[in-house]
Structure formats: C-alpha cells, structure tokens
Amino acid sequence: MEQIGHYINGQAVLARGERSSDIFNPATGEITAKLGLGTHVEVEEAIQAATDALPAWAATPPVRRARVIMRFLQLLNEHVEELALMVSLEHGKVLDDARGEVLRGIEVVEFACGIPHLLKGEYNENVGTRVDSWSVRAPVGVCAGISPFNFPLMVPLWMFPIAIACGNTFVMKPSEKTPTSTLRLAQLFTEAGLPEGVFNIVNGDKEAVDALLSHPMVKAISFVGSTPIARYIQKTGIENGKRVQALGGAKNHAIVLPDADISSTVDALMGAAYGSAGERCMAISVLVAVGDIADPLVESLAHKLKDLRVLPGTNPEAEMGPLVTRQHRDTVLAFVESGVQEGATLVVDGRWTSNPEHGDGFFMGGCLFDNVTPDMKIYQKEIFGPVLAVVRIDSYDEALALINSHEYGNGAAIFTQEGHAAREFAAGVEAGMVGINVPIPVPMAFHSFGGWKGSLFGDHHMHGMEGVRFFTKLKTVTSRWRASTSTSQFSMPTMS
User: Fold this and answer.
1) Which of 182, 173, 236 is nearest to 37 (CA)?
2) How far is CA 58 from CA 51, 305, 358, 363, in A?
3) CA–CA dist 496, 483 (Å, integer)
4) Taking the domains of the chain in order of start, what are their residue ranges?
5) Helices 262-274 and 294-306 meet at what angle, rounded to 10?
6) Which one of 113, 143, 166, 281 is the catalytic residue?
7) How many CB atoms lie within 10 A of CB 345?
8) For position 484, what pLDDT does the model report?
9) Class of the domain covering 252-436
10) Fewer CB within 10 A of the end CB, N or C, for the chain?
11) How many whole angstroms separate alpha carbon 470 and alpha carbon 220?
12) At what angle do helices 206-214 and 227-239 cross, to 10 degrees?
C-alpha cells in the first residue's frame, strides 16, 4: 500500500505520526493509498522551512521570480494528461472535466508570470515642494492555503502561484481526500527551480489546520470549502492576527425566462447541474422557471437526464463519474429522501446503488426535482451532488427576490433572449459572479473569483488583481531632498 506523506523544504517527507486516512478510487471503492495525517510537528517544520526561505525569496527581483513561474508553467503544460488522470482517479470526475480543471489552474499561473508588471506601484512627483510620493506592494510573509476535495489541483493553483510570485513563501494543506495531484505540483515547482522551502505541503485534517491558524509566523490564510468551516477559518485566523480570504458554500440559481431557447438552455443546465457529479461550488442547483416555460423545460431536462452516461471517470464514454466518497454519496442520498418526504416531485430518481460495471464504486444517477418550495431543505442547503431543484415562479421580479433572499450569493445565471432583462439581472442580483446565458460564470484568471453573503468571508476575492492585493501589503513612501540643512520641526508636517 502506497504511503503518502508531505513535501517540506524541497523534498518528500514521510509522515511520522500514527494517524492516517484512506485514499479511495471512487469508481471502484478500493483503497489505493494511506495518507499520513500531519501533526503540529510537521506543520512547525514546514513553517520553519518557509520562514527560513522567506528573506532571500522576498529579495529576489520580481522578474527573476517570474522566470521560475514561467518554467513551472512550461512543466504544467507538458504534464496536463498526467495531472488530469491523477485528479480523475482520486476525485472521480470524468477525464474531460479533470483536464479542464488543470487548464483553468494553468491560466492563473500564466497570469502570475506577469508579476513584474502587476506589482508596479503608483508615483507622484512634487506632491509638495521637492516632495515625491510613491507606493509599492511588499510580500506579506509566510502564507498558507487550505483547499477542498472537489478541485484538488485548480484551487491550489489559484492560491500559491500568485502568493509566491509576490515574494511570499507558502504552506499548502490539501484535502485529505484528494492529496496526490497537489504533491505532484510541488515536485514540478521544485524541478522548475523554485528554492527549497518556498513551497511546502502538509497533509492532514483539523489538527494541521488549527496549527496553521494559530502559528504566529503565518500571516495570511486562503481557504475554499464549506460555509461553516469558512466562518471558523475567518474567526480563528483574525483572532490570531492574520488576514483571511475564506470562500464558503453556494446555492447557485439560474432563472429561465419564457423567451429562452429551450434546447440550448437545457444543454447548458445539464453540464452545470450534473457535471463533476454536482460537486462544484459553481454548480447550478436551483432552476427558477418563470411562467409557462416550466413544463417544457422540466420535460426536456428529464428526457436528457435519463440518457446521462454515469460511468467511471476514466471511461471515454462517461458524462458523469462517481461521488468522491461513500459517506458523501450517502449524505446526498439523504437530501434526496428529504425532498421526497417534504413533498417535492422527484421527476427523475437517480438513487440507484448498484451496477455490474461499477462494483463498489460511489455512484448515483442524476436527480431532478420539480415543484420545490423555498421552505424545503433541498432548496435551502448546499447538497453538493447531482441534484437539480426546479422552483416555479410567476414573474421575473419574484424570481430575482427569491435569489436575493437566499443566504448564499456565490453565482447566479439568467437565460433569456431579451437584453434589457439580462442587464437588469446583472445589476440587481446579489451574487459575486453572474452569467448571462452562461451557466457557470467562473471568471478568467485576469479577473477574480468570489461570491457575496454567506459564500465569502474576508475582503478579497481569489486570483486576478484581488489575489495580488491579498498576498501583498501596501507601503507608501514620501521623500524630500533639500540642498540645504533645516531646523527641527515639531508641528504636523504638511506638503507646503
């Protein structure tokens, strides 16, 4: 059985503690490796390595840091298929989806290659007589990242490349369910010429997380996960004097207006609701059907869903793979049962539990509910599985009010052929990311990713210029040079 440990100071390190967790292949249910769970001892070693490496790396000119990032980018492009396979085997998502995850992560590395330009400050000459003023962005210090199971490669690439390009050092804590692709990133970064100690990985659970949150040398924490944990990360991190960027859960709505093209809308919603088995924080999980489009929309979705090919993610014919663990699948199945008990209409029941081709894999089919109401659990809670809930609404205004009253505000979409309605929706919806005839409006790397309300805790979104701002601190310098000596000044300085 393969033993998975950590990556500290430029090399793989076996876990020394006795605690471990199992790594599964979700398509077969088989245990593929044992993951050693790091303690405060390994966290301390990783932070010390990052602390030791910080002065030299922060002093490295941004253009030289960018050259290391560029070599890392080249290696990532050379290993796309290898990395996609690692993600698929450990998470369960289909290979095309895993490949897309790798490429979206690579886009952020491409953005980070421009760090010499991105770190340029502002300059004002003669803000006063012979007084000049300028601002610069300085590294924060040792930073840490905590990433979720559903994007084990992309989300870390949204964090550490920008932090490291800005001159920080980094300690990553991947999900204990899907750690191996993140470890491979560390190996490739070292191969690209990254100095030892600049990027470290500690695998673990809450013990490792708490050690990062409480350590005085860690200055910034970046997190993606559920809302309860995001709240905990923010509260604990702030109490320990850290800046925190914590992205939480979601309940993404899509409004479909009566004038929407049904065929293209259904095609878009199928991928948005059931791609990656619904295990996406940007998945569409609520469909708000306005007016008389509801019946043909539900009928078309049901027809498509019954033909959805649910197979192991490595199967070229697969459209949806298994869920990540048996426990998570059971949680999703319990949500489906609650929807039935609360009176929603289960139009398509995907709760099949066995198939000769799947063995003991963690599979279920896609589920489609109709006649869902806002008081139901399947409407209120983040299910994080292949379940789409249809809410019927009479008017656009009611639909918008429904979305804006929900506790989450990660993403929202509208499907329409009417420009005015689309513009009003973009301006009025209370969500951080908005799609117009685009079901999963994940911004490109040169914009920033993040939600509103219960989907984001902290002041900064992720990657793009928001990432640069989060991983740097602003310094403003005011300078005066005089040809002659001056007497002491005891009054408030002015620019006269």
Assistant:
1) 173
2) 11, 52, 50, 47
3) 17
4) 2-248+455-477, 252-436
5) 50
6) 281
7) 13
8) 67
9) alpha beta
10) C
11) 8
12) 30
Structure token pair of residue 346: 């289960």
Strand order in the sheet with 123-128: 123-128, 131-139, 472-480
pLDDT in tens, 78-120: 999 999 999 999 999 999 999 999 999 999 999 999 999 999 9
| Amino acid letter, 189 | F
Amino acid at 88: S
DSSP string, 170-231: EEEE--TTS-HHHHHHHHHHHHTTPPTTSEEE---SHHHHHHHHH-TTEEEEEEES-HHHHH
Q: Which residues have a Cβ under 8 Å from the Cβ of 483 and sit 6 or more positions away?
A: none
| CA dist list (Å): 33 to 21, 125, 148, 205, 245 | 9, 60, 19, 16, 31
Can you tell me the mean pLDDT for 250-278? 97
254 touches 287 (CB < 8 A)? yes
How far apart (Å, rounded) are the C-alpha atoms in residues 493 and 496?
A: 9
Structure tokens at 399: 């639909």
CA distances from 228 to 243, 372, 410 (A): 18, 25, 15
Cβ-contact 299, 288 below 8 angstroms: no
Helices 154-165/62-78 angle, 10° precision: 160
Q: What is the pTM for the complete model shown?
A: 0.94
Q: Which of 253, 199, 196, 211 is nearest to 441 (CA)?
A: 253
Quick check: is 166 catalytic? Answer: no
- CA proximity to 123, closest of 364, 476, 414, 366: 476
pLDDT attached to residue 490? 74
- In 3D space, the residue among 234, 203, 232 whose CA is nearest the CA of residue 221 turns out to be 234
The owner of tokens 């692709």 is 181
Q: Are 119 and 469 in contact (CB under 8 A)?
A: no
Question: How many of the other CB atoms lie within 10 Å of CB of 120?
Answer: 12
Residues near 348 by Cβ (< 8 Å), separated by ≥ 6?
A: 302, 305, 306, 365, 366, 367, 368
Angle at which helices 419-428 and 396-404 pack, to 10 degrees? 20
Q: pLDDT by residue (tens digit) across 373-432?
A: 999 999 999 999 999 999 999 999 999 999 999 999 999 999 999 999 999 999 999 999
With a pLDDT cut of 70, the percent of the chain lying above it is 97
d(CA 368, CA 286): 10
CATH superfamily for 2-248+455-477 is Aldehyde Dehydrogenase; Chain A, domain 1 (3.40.605.10)
User: Which phi and psi (to 5°) does residue 218 adopt?
Assistant: -85, 120
